Amino acid sequence: MTTRMIKRWGIHSVELRTNRNPMLRTSTESDADLLWTHSREGWLRVDWPSGFVRDGNTKAEELCSRSVEDMIGQPFWRLFDPDSLERLKDWIAEWQRSGKPGERAGVWLHRQDGASVPITVRVVRISANRAKPASGRQCFVAFEDLRNMQSLVARLDQAEARLDETARVARIGWWEWDIPADIVLWSESMHQVLGISASEFGGTMSAFLQGVHPDDLNVVRERLTATLTRGVPFIVSYRMIRKDDSIRYIYTHGRASRDDDGRSLRLYGTCQDVTDREVALIGLRASEQKYRDLVETSNEIIWSLDAQGILTYVNQAMRDVYGYEPDERIGKPFMEFVPPDRLEENWSRFQSVLSGDPLFNFETVHLRKDNERIDLSINAIALRDVDGRVVGASGTTSNITERKRNEQLLKERESWFR
């Protein structure tokens, strides 16, 4: 860096030192040139207190979208957009009084292409030129480019918005309890989940517990005590009564943080509204119970077999039709019911079902527990797992022994009149 460049910067102490040491001067000049040329900040050298631009680096040209020649001779604040200039009136006045106005963020440069660039602006004082004191005082004005920061903030805002929307859709809220101060904080989505506005919520643990369903209150308190005393995770499902008297099913998962002495300081976690799931499960359980009731009271045998023909389920009708208790036959092959003269036929039909051919109204003969022969009508289809593989068969069996006897009697009577 030449002596002219050093004077331009006003770094007089460096100039004096480098004059005495040529090697140091070469190194310092090179570093200063690199700093001025390749700085990530825009730098302007300006007169004080007029603010007239006297020089600038490449980054300043890029930020302002204009050459240094275009900026020279005008106050540097003319580069700001009108709104920023209005906000900076006091800042500029302070600079003109003292030359030390401090740093200001939230400033926008107005580019020649019409775009605006967010920056932070600060001022660096330069000592008066000792060789030419009449030249006046100057300052460096630095523009820190905040476009990347603005982009990051925008992405963070978008991510936070997506997170809030996800929490709203999933009906999840976060909470935190400052235990020593007994202050409970809820997220906005938490207020939505529990139907309590921030102004209505008392902000304490007792205020929260007031909304817990009376039948679930002891469970919540027990889990809370276990978390605070033994450090186990706070995991509990319970019901909340909202101010409109509607009931919401809540699933909570939380953990406690402790100090060095093991005392609980904070409890934090999430709450999820699982009402739809719980209502669906209640309906499913009721439906399953209704189905079981129908199955267990049916006059037909309802059964299932694995791929080897072993009974895996049979209802109470087994007792009336075969004379066995259901538990006696679970885990036994169905072929034990079949008399020798029907073994091949029954096994063949079973294999056809496993091959995917439904069986309807297949009439055959089986043996009861007392070895009495009974006539049966069987319907069956293949059972498949979640991957579609056949794992057995299920169906129904009706006792048609009485019907067969009546049919035989009818045939005998008809033969009398021939």
Topology:
Elements lengths: L2 H7 L2 H9 L1 H17 L2 E8 L4 E4 L1 H7 L3 H4 L10 H6 L1 H10 L5 E7 L5 E11 L10 E9 L1 H24 L1 E7 L4 E4 L1 H7 L10 H5 L4 H17 L3 E8 L5 E12 L5 E10 L1 H23 L3 E6 L4 E4 L2 H6 L3 H4 L13 H12 L4 E9 L5 E12 L5 E10 L1 H16 L2
Antiparallel strand pairs: 1-2, 1-5, 3-4, 4-5, 6-7, 6-10, 8-9, 9-10, 11-12, 11-15, 13-14, 14-15
Strand arrangement within the widest β-sheet reads 2-1-5-4-3
The amount of helix comes to 40-55%
Strand percent estimate: 25-35%
Mean pLDDT: 83
| DSSP, total strands | 15
Ranges where pLDDT stays below 50 over 5 or more residues in a row are 1-25, 129-135
Largest sheet: 5 strands, antiparallel
Distance between the termini: 134 Å
Write a structural description.
With 418 residues, this protein is of the alpha+beta class. It contains 16 helices and 15 strands. The strands form 3 sheets. A 5-stranded antiparallel beta sheet has the order 2-1-5-4-3. Strands 7-6-10-9-8 form a 5-stranded antiparallel beta sheet, with helices on both faces. A hairpin with a 4-residue loop joins strand 1 and strand 2. Helix 2 (12-20) packs antiparallel against helix 3 (22-38). The longest helix is centred in the middle third of the chain and has 24 residues, at 147-170. It starts with a helix and ends with a helix.
Question: What are the defining features of this structure?
Answer:
single chain; 418 residues; alpha+beta; five-stranded antiparallel β-sheet; 15 strands; 42% helix; disordered N terminus
What's the short version?
With 418 residues, the chain is an alpha+beta fold. The protein has 16 helices and 15 strands. The protein has a 5-stranded antiparallel sheet with strand order 2-1-5-4-3.
